[in-house]
Amino acid sequence: MAVWLGQLVISKVTHGKPGFRVQYWRNPSMTPAFLGLESVEDLRRYLRHCRLSNTTPDEVIEQLRTASRITLNTIESEEKIG
Which of 8, 41, 59, 73 is the most buried (most CB within 10 A)? Predict the structure, then answer.
């Protein structure tokens, strides 16, 4: 099974209604995916399903209280088929 680090960049939305913008890379050669989340609870639900490296969803949300943008590592894996 191959294992590597992915990356999440979470930014607070600065215009319009409150929310968060998430950019997600599974590996460095992949184009990032973009996701918009409307509330802290939406972000918390999303983060619960991510395999975060060295942090928890609640710690991420606490960091976003003072920072406008944070970068996180995720642990990714791929099972061999066959």
Answer: 8
- Per the CB < 8 A criterion, the answer to whether 19 and 28 are in contact is no
Model pTM? 0.78
Instruction: Check residue 62 and give left, alpha or beta (phi > 0: left; psi -120 to 50: alpha).
Output: alpha
pLDDT tens digits in sequence order for the chain, 82 residues long: 666 677 889 999 877 777 999 998 876 567 788 999 999 999 999 999 888 888 999 999 999 999 999 999 887 666 655 5
Backbone angles phi, psi at 40, to 5 degrees: -60, -40
- Do the beta carbons of residue 47 and residue 66 sit within 8 Å? no
